[in-house]
Amino acid sequence: QRSNMNDRMNMAPAQSAMGDRWGATESRGPPTRESPQPPKGRWERPRGPMAATDPVLEQLSYLRGPTTGMETRSAEPKKFTGRCRLFVGNLPSNFTEEQFRKLFENYGEVAEIFLNTSKGFGFVKLDTRQNAEAAKAALDFMPMQQKPLRVRFATHSAALKVKNFSQWVTNELLELAFSVFGDVERAVVIVDDRGRSVGEGIVEFSRK
């Protein structure tokens, strides 16, 4: 019996050494449950006082997880956007806002008008891009009091160019990502001749 006890005592240090060598440690006390860590590259919900005071961070926290179930955007174009705004030059000095409005009402619904008669130019916004293109084609170079009108699309003052994003980013995801900063009129991913994303896009907001 003493021999068996001595053998067991001699084997205990050897087993402990093997356990240390192979990283097997005996559990001491009840096991603790660790909170799962979020995967790298995924947005984590902001914590602390900033989470309750910053609405942008609060909305950005929801842009995580799979995007395969996102709703498809409506095919109907938005109305009265910055892409429907026209610049009109060579206007007569005695031209009134009522005359300016009637000039474009034949091509669609007019939302807003700006007229500077002293410098002979103005801006007008129509309801759709298609109607704005029709008005531009019909009125550009139209003679008015011995001067040809010049009609051009106005520069969008609230447009951003986005670069260096993944090729898997779609128009819907691009619009969703930037909608936390304001109302997005249009978000388009630029593609090459084969329809593949080049990692760049255009985001147009309703306000600057």
UniProtKB/TrEMBL annotation:
Signal peptide: none annotated. Residues 1-54 are annotated as: Disordered. Transmembrane segments: none annotated. Gene3D superfamilies: 3.30.70.330. InterPro entries: Nucleotide-bd_a/b_plait_sf (IPR012677), RBD_domain_sf (IPR035979), RRM_dom (IPR000504). Residues 84-156, 158-208 form the RRM domain. GO terms for molecular function: RNA binding. Keywords: Repeat, RNA-binding. This is RNA-binding protein p54nrb. It comes from Amblyomma variegatum.
